[in-house]
Design a protein that fits this description.
heterodimer, A: mainly alpha, 17 helices, B: alpha+beta, five-stranded mixed beta sheet, 10 strands, elongated
Chain lengths: ~600, ~250
C-alpha cells in the first residue's frame, strides 16, 4: 500500500521560493535540544517533564492508598527512606502533604504539561500545516517558566514547617497564615502562579497559531477535532487562568504583606472574605476541568474515526457541542460551593446551568457511538485507550449529575463520591486519552513504533484496575466516607469500609505496577522500536504527510488543504487501493468530496 | 458486597435518598444502553477479512443530526429536568424553609474551630450569651420530633458540619453565619463529622449527636444546665462566644 500518496505536495521537494521561507535548523546542542524554539522539541520537553511528574504524583497516590488500607502501618520498602522520623509510618502531617501535593502535581504539573504543553505543542502546527507556532520564543519561555514553577514547587518540600498542607484547592483561611504559617504554602502559591503564567503564554500562542497560521484551505470546519480541542482549551486558559493568578496574588499578599483579602472572623477587625477565594478559585477551577478534557475529547473524536475507518459521526454538531461546553463551562462553577450557604437563587441557577451542560456533552458521546456504528473497527492500542475513555468518561460524566443536584449534593458533597467522580474524568479519562495520544503519535514524535503486544497488555492492566479504584471510591463515598481523612476508622460508621478501602488500594497497586509495562515499552521502543513509516495508521491528517520524525521546518511546501480530516471509507479512494484520502491530496475523481473552495488565504 | 447508605434517622433524609435512587436508576439505564450499543458496534463492525472498509457517511446529515438531538433531549428531560424540578421543590418546601418562626424549634449555635465543635443552646431564658446557656463540646443533644435549627460560625478555618445519618451538611466559615435545619425521628447516637479539610487533624474532628425522646431530652437539659452554670466563666477568653441569634452580633 502506498502510504506516501498523501504527500504529493512534497514529492517535488521545496521550490526556491519555499526554501527562502524555511528557517535554517539550529546546529548547537543548546539551541537544538535545550533552549529550542522548535515546537516539536518544546513539545517533547513538556512531555518528559509531565511524565516525570506523573510518576511522582502516582507514587504519592500509592502512599495515600497504603495509609487508607493499613492506617498507621509502616510503609514497606521506601517507608524508612521517606518517613524516617516516624519509623516508616505516614504521619498525619505527611499524609496531608501527600494528598495536597498529589492533587497539585497531577493537575498542574503532570496532565497539563503532557497534554496541553506536550501534545498541544507538537501537534498544532503539524495538524494545521504550519512550520512552527506563531510565537516560537514565547513558546520556549512558556516551557522554561513551567520548569521554574516545578523547581519552586519541589523546594516547598524542604522548608521549615514542612510542605503545603491546605489541599490542592488551598481554601482560605487554611491557606493563609492562620492555617499554614510556614513558607511551604507561600512557595506553593508562587509555583501555581508561575505555572499559570506558563499556561497563559501557551494559550495566547495556540490561539494566534490557529487563527493565523492555518495552511491555505484549512478552514475551521476542516480542522481535526484535536485542533478544535486545543484551540478551545486555549481560549478558556487565556480567560480563566488569570483569575487563578489573581487569587494567588491576593493570597500571596495575605501571607506575606499582612493584608486580609481572604481573612475574616479570626482576628479583630479582619474584614476580608474566605468565600471570595472560593469564588475566584472555582471561577477558574471549573473551566479547568474542561481545559483538560477538551483536548482529550478532540483527540478521541479523531482517533475513533481513524480506527473505525469511517468519518466522524456529526462533525459539525460535535464542533458546536464543544463550543457549547466552552461557553457553559464558564457559568457552572457554583456547584462546587453548594454547601457554603449560597443564596437559593444562585444555588438553583448553578444547578440548572450545570445540568444543561449535559446536553452538549451527551451530543459528544453520541458522536463517538455513531462513529463506531458500521465502521471497520481496528482494535489497535490507541483505539483500545479511546474506547476506555468512552467507558470511564461515561461513568464519570453521569456521576456528575449526582453532584449537580443540590439535594443529593447535601449528602455527597466532600465525600469520596466526589473523589471517584472527578478521578474518573480527570484521572481515568485523561490518562486514557494521554496513552491513546502517546501510542498514536509516538511514531511521528520519535520515528519508531511502540510494541502493540505490550501496549495491549498495558491497556488491560490499566483499564480494569483503574475502574475498580475509582468506582470503588464512588461506593465508599456513597456509603458516606469524607475526603482527606488520615484515618477513617476514627468514625464508627466508616469502620466497616476498611475491607473495601483495602480492596481499592490493592487495585491501585496493580494499576501503579502496570505502568511499568508502559515505561519499558516507551524506552525500549525509543531505543529499538521498528522504524516508523511516514503514515503507519493510514490516515489523512497533515502530520502524516511528513517524515517520522518531521524535519525542523515540518513541511517542505505548505500544503493546500482540500478536504476535512476524516475522509475514510471514501469511494474515491477505492481506485487508489486504500480507504482514506489525505487532507491535502488532489484526487481527480473526487471533486465532489470538497465542494467548497478554500475559504481564505491565511496571512 | 453490601452497598448501602448510612441509617437514615431524619424526617427529610428520604428526599435525598430518593433523588440519589432516581439518579442511579436513570443514569444506570442510560449507561447500560450506551454500553450495549458500544458492545454491539464492536462485535458487529470490527474489521476482519473481507470487511476492511467502513461505511461512508456523507449525505444524510439531517437525519444524523435529528437523531443526535432527539436522544440528547430525551435524556435531558428524563434525567436533568425531572431532577431539577424535584430538587427545587424539595429545597424550597423543606430544606431551605428554615424554622425561623417556629417556637418549638430547638435553636443551636455551632462554633467550629480546629479541631472541635461546640454547641450552645439558649437555656430557660431563651437568650443566647447568658449564664444559663448550655454549652457542650463535640456533643449535640437534640429532642426528636422538633425541628433543630443550627447557626454556624468558625473561629479559624472553613469546616463543614456533616451529619451522615441526617443526609445533610453545611460549611462553617470564618466571618459569616451559615444555617441548617433538620429533624430527628429515631432516638439514638449518631456521628457528627467534619467534611471540609481543615488542617492536619481534620480526621479527628468528630462529634456525637444524641437524639432523645422529649422527656429524656428535658431530663438531660436540666442536668446539663447545672453543669454549664458551674463551668461558666464569662471572663475566660476561651469561653465560646455566643452571639445574638437574630442579628448575628456577638452577644458577649
Amino acid at each position: 500500500m502506498n502510504t506516501n500518496a498523501n504527500a504529493d505536495a512534497g514529492d517535488d521537494g521545496p521550490t526556491a521560493e519555499d526554501r527562502d521561507e524555511i528557517p535554517p535548523a539550529p546546529t548547537g546542542f543548546l539551541r537544538r535540544w535545550v533552549f529550542s524554539t522548535d515546537h516539536k522539541v518544546i513539545g517533547r520537553q513538556f512531555l518528559f517533564l509531565g511524565l516525570g511528574f506523573l510518576a511522582i504524583g502516582g507514587v504519592m497516590a500509592m502512599l495515600i492508598r497504603w495509609q487508607l488500607a493499613r492506617p498507621g502501618a509502616p510503609v514497606p520498602l521506601v517507608g524508612r527512606l521517606l518517613f524516617g522520623a516516624s519509623g516508616g509510618v505516614i504521619s498525619p502531617v505527611a499524609y496531608t502533604a501527600l494528598f495536597t501535593m498529589h492533587g497539585t502535581i497531577m493537575i498542574f504539573f503532570a496532565v497539563t504539561p503532557v497534554l496541553i504543553g506536550g501534545f498541544g505543542n507538537f501537534l498544532l502546527p503539524l495538524l494545521i500545516g504550519a512550520r512552527d507556532m506563531a510565537f516560537p520564543r514565547l513558546n520556549m519561555a512558556s516551557f522554561w517558566i513551567m520548569f521554574a514553577a516545578t523547581a519552586v514547587l519541589t523546594a516547598s518540600f524542604f522548608v521549615p514547617l514542612g510542605p503545603p498542607e491546605a489541599g490542592w484547592t488551598a481554601y482560605a483561611t487554611l491557606s493563609t497564615a492562620i492555617g499554614a504559617p510556614g513558607p511551604g504554602q507561600t512557595l506553593w502559591v508562587v509555583a501555581i502562579y508561575l505555572n499559570g503564567a506558563s499556561s497563559v503564554m501557551g494559550a495566547v500562542n495556540y490561539i494566534t497559531t490557529v487563527l493565523r497560521m492555518r495552511a491555505p484551505g484549512m478552514t475551521y470546519l476542516r480542522m481535526p477535532l484535536t485542533v478544535w480541542g486545543f484551540f478551545l482549551t486555549s481560549i478558556l486558559n487565556a480567560l480563566f487562568v488569570p483569575v487563578l493568578a489573581a487569587a494567588m496574588v491576593l493570597l500571596f499578599f495575605d501571607r506575606v504583606l499582612g493584608t486580609q483579602f481572604f481573612i475574616a472572623g479570626t482576628t479583630p477587625g479582619a474584614g476580608g472574605d474566605p468565600i471570595l477565594y472560593q469564588h475566584l478559585f472555582w471561577l477558574f477551577g471549573h473551566p479547568e476541568v474542561y481545559i483538560l478534557i477538551l483536548p482529550a475529547w478532540g483527540i478521541v473524536g479523531d482517533l475513533l474515526s481513524f480506527f473505525a475507518r469511517k468519518p466522524l459521526f456529526g462533525y459539525r454538531v460535535t464542533v458546536g457541542a464543544l463550543i457549547g461546553v466552552v461557553i457553559l463551562s464558564t457559568v457552572v462553577y457554583g456547584h462546587h460551593m453548594f454547601t457554603t450557604g449560597l443564596s437559593p437563587l444562585l444555588g438553583e441557577s448553578f444547578m440548572l446551568l450545570t445540568m444543561i451542560i449535559s446536553v452538549p456533552t451527551s451530543l459528544i458521546v453520541l458522536s463517538w457511538l455513531g462513529t463506531l456504528w458500521r465502521g471497520a473497527i481496528r482494535l489497535q492500542t490507541p483505539m483500545l485507550f479511546c474506547l476506555g475513555l468512552v467507558f470511564t468518561f461515561g461513568v464519570g460524566g453521569l456521576t456528575g449529575l449526582y453532584l449537580a443536584d443540590i439535594t443529593a449534593d447535601m449528602y455527597l458533597h466532600d465525600t469520596y463520591f466526589v473523589v471517584g467522580h472527578f478521578h474518573l474524568i480527570m484521572a481515568a479519562a485523561l490518562l486514557m486519552s494521554l496513552f491513546a495520544a502517546i501510542y498514536f503519535w509516538f511514531p511521528k514524535m520519535f520515528g519508531r513504533m511502540m510494541s502493540e503486544g505490550l501496549g495491549k497488555l498495558h491497556f488491560w492492566l490499566t483499564f480494569v484496575p483503574l475502574n475498580l479504584v475509582f468506582m470503588g471510591q464512588l461506593v465508599i463515598g456513597y456509603e458516606g466516607m469524607q475526603r482527606r481523612l488520615y484515618d477513617p476508622s476514627v468514625y464508627d460508621f466508616l469502620k466497616p469500609l476498611l475491607p473495601l478501602n483495602r480492596g481499592i488500594s490493592h487495585a491501585a497497586y496493580l494499576l501503579g505496577a502496570a505502568q511499568l509495562i508502559f515505561v519499558v515499552n516507551f524506552f525500549a521502543s525509543l531505543a529499538r522500536g521498528a522504524r516508523a513509516e511516514m503514515n503507519p495508521w493510514e490516515v489523512g491528517t497533515l502530520e502524516w504527510t511528513v517524515a517520522s520524525p518531521p524535519p525542523h521546518h515540518n513541511f517542505d511546501r505548505i500544503p493546500l488543504v482540500v478536504r476535512g480530516p476524516h475522509e475514510l471509507a471514501h469511494p474515491a479512494a477505492r481506485s487508489l487501493g486504500r480507504d482514506w484520502l489525505g487532507q491535502a491530496e488532489i484526487v481527480d475523481d473526487a471533486p465532489a468530496a470538497s465542494p467548497t473552495p478554500p475559504a481564505r488565504e491565511p496571512a | 458486597m453490601h452497598i448501602e447508605l448510612p441509617r437514615d434517622a431524619s424526617l427529610d433524609g428520604h428526599l435525598v435518598d430518593g433523588a440519589i435512587g432516581y439518579l442511579t436508576l436513570t443514569t444506570g439505564i442510560a449507561f447500560a444502553l450506551a454500553l450495549a450499543f458500544l458492545a454491539s458496534a464492536l462485535v458487529l463492525h470490527r474489521a476482519r477479512a473481507g470487511r476492511t472498509r467502513g461505511h461512508h457517511t456523507h449525505g444524510n446529515r439531517k437525519r444524523d443530526r435529528a437523531l443526535m438531538f432527539s436522544v440528547a433531549l430525551v435524556m435531558f428531560v428524563a434525567i436533568d429536568v425531572t431532577l431539577a424540578l424535584r430538587a427545587t421543590r424539595d429545597l424550597e418546601e423543606r430544606f431551605w424553609r428554615y424554622p425561623a418562626a417556629d417556637s418549638t424549634a430547638l435553636r443551636v449555635e455551632v462554633t467550629a474551630r480546629q479541631w472541635a465543635w461546640s454547641f450552645r443552646t439558649a437555656g430557660p431564658d431563651g437568650r443566647f450569651g447568658t449564664a444559663d446557656d448550655v454549652v457542650t463540646l463535640n456533643e449535640l443533644d437534640v429532642p426528636i420530633g422538633r425541628p433543630i435549627y443550627l447557626k454556624l460560625r468558625s473561629r479559624d478555618v472553613v469546616h463543614s458540619l456533616y451529619l451522615p445519618s441526617f443526609r445533610t451538611k453545611i460549611d462553617a466559615i470564618p466571618g459569616m453565619t451559615t444555617r441548617l435545619w433538620f429533624q430527628a425521628t429515631t432516638p439514638g447516637r449518631y456521628e457528627i463529622a467534619c467534611a471540609q479539610h481543615c488542617g492536619v487533624n481534620h480526621y479527628k474532628m468528630r462529634g456525637l449527636l444524641d437524639a432523645r425522646t422529649e422527656s429524656d431530652y428535658r431530663e438531660w437539659l436540666a442536668r446539663a444546665e447545672i453543669d454549664s452554670r458551674l463551668r461558666d466563666d464569662p471572663a475566660a477568653p476561651s469561653a465560646p462566644g455566643g452571639w445574638d441569634w437574630e442579628t448575628g452580633e456577638n452577644g458577649k
